[in-house]
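Pipeline run #58 for the internal structure catalog. This entry was flagged by the ingest filter as a single-chain record with no existing model, so it goes straight to prediction. Upstream metadata was stripped on purpose; only the residue string is passed forward. Reviewer on rotation: M.T. Logging verbosity set to normal.
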Amino acid sequence: MERMITVDGVEYRLVTNAFTPIAYKNEFGRDYFQEMLNMFESEQMMAMLQQSQEGQVEQLELDMSAMKNFDMTFFQRLFWMFAKSGNPQLEPFQPFFEKMESFPVADVAPVLVEMLEQNLVTKKKSMSQQMQAQTSLQLSRT
């Protein structure tokens, strides 16, 4: 999956594929799927943060228990990994973020979450396609 996004005035090509979990583990020494699960557990907190920024919820209403497993830097690691997949020449993680004046998590998170969700979806061939393939295979054997 691929998306384009502008952050801090720079356009980035974000890419995720089957290698992403392996590259994430190699780069950060953390399990991609475990971090995703922790993030999805904190989805309530993200929704409240978004509402808070829109003025719909008072800051004090945030459920602090929802923040227990929330790691804000997960979005930065994920963003950098997707950007690195889109541009293998991208500089290392720390210098990359040191040059950024800001990182708008509220703007970036929905794109990253969409990409995560799409990466988890499996595409299954329809039964008719499978039957056609088996029939073709059987015919080629005779």
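catalog note: The chain has seven helices and two strands.
catalog note: Strands lie at 2-7, 10-15.
status: ready for reviewer M.T.
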